[in-house]
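[READ THE FOLD]
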Amino acid sequence: MAIKVTMPRLSDTMTEGTVATWLKKVGDKVSEGDILAEIETDKATMEFESFNEGTLLHIGIQAGETAPVDSLLAIIGKEGEDISALLAGGDAPAAEAPKADAPAAEAKTETAAPAKAATELPKGVVVVTMPRLSDTMTEGTVATWLKKVGDTVAEGDILAEIETDKATMEFESFNAGTLLYIGIQEGSTAPVDSLLAIIGPAGTDISGIADNFTAGGTATASAPAAEETKAAPAAEKAPEAVADNSNGRVLASPLAKKIASDKGIQLSQVKGSGENGRIVKSDIENFTPSAQAAPSSNTSAPAAKGEEKAAAPKVFVPAGEVYTEEIKNSQMRKIIAKRLSESLFTAPHYNLVIEVSMDEAMQARAAINSVPDTKVSFNDMVIKACALALKKHPKINSTWKEDAIIINHHVNIGVAVAVEDGLVVPVLKFTDAMSLSQIGGSVRDLAGRAKNKKLGPQEMEGSTFTVSNLGMFGITEFNSIINQPNSAILSVGAIVEKPVVKNGQIVVGNTMMLSLACDHRTIDGATGAQFLQTLKQYIESPVTMLA
């Protein structure tokens, strides 16, 4: 059924919005997390992402036009679906439009809903709540505060880094004033809509607001003033916090990151013109290789940081003594536990295993990598083979719904990447249309940024199939848990040199084990077996992948 998408309320004072740019056009396919448009509010131009999948059937507000909040922005539904009744004013489920706590494409939206009180809040005071920075986020952890109580805050300043279920993201302010109160300390976790901070004029009495705040942006009458608040004017004189780039982190807006990614520009090469050197859209658009800044001493910081960490003294445990260590679960670890438990306990898993000869693949890889500036791994070849095999066996590329099975005819392969806190799955969009070298470059880029916690939520959404490879650790065979809502995941083992039989003779050969975990609700055993046979043919004869 077609769904109405309305003009969202992206800030507490927004009554109307202007569509700056449409990033999708009528007829385009839309996945959850795709950026539909850039919307200009009364405070900033923000990316607006979709919470629905389907085809963009209608655009109600053209680029450059302004319309009130809740106006018909677009209609998303099945390709060819009749939407005449909706255009005539008929009812349909309205897409959940992000309010002040809704996510934009990345970490830059802020829930800045003014708390409604039994008596009005002091003039200019804004309650900032824990934002919903991804479609699946229910709580967040404050990793780092980049501002402290008493600091002056300008619109666009980064307040904190917030760890979600998918990534650690920068969180910027859409309000100007003084940071009067911090409600969630570094390392603490709180549900979405919890009181994160209070911003307002310096010296404003905000006593009682925090104590009487309730999730959802409401508060009751203020209590007597607190000494802590009265000290704010003095604290305001403290120098403004400057974002620390010594750890190699590059500050950039979500739109700048997207444009840079599309153009293949490394953000580390761009000099930002925004606050604290933050990279904005114009910096990317005006960037040329000749304008590349000389590498700064910061480029070595990540390695230095890793060296310091490696050099940290180990805990000494005397012999014969019991010693335990408690490590607080990160937000990522909690979500991994929740998602994989749900997958294993709800989807009836079964595994199919096949052995693949890698002799021709090894020769082909050596020939490909002999080309200058080309680097292709065996994993890249497996991903390419999977993409082509999925086109021939679309039932593997499916999603289970209670009332239907969704067959995905586009191929978006997720690649499992181990990071310090657990596991993330960045996604290669439209993998079947990518060359081996494009797959290799994209995987290296995504894996590198995943380990540095620089991936955006939209880069980890929309997968239709997943590949997990532990071959580099010498694991010859293993079974994975399905990455829902996918119906299957391929586990790739190490290449092993061993005796094999060819043409009746025992010779030395190279083989690799592939294990396919399937959801029996969507994939029958014969279907999974046929997919593995096709996959085996592609890998054992790589030239067929070029046909």
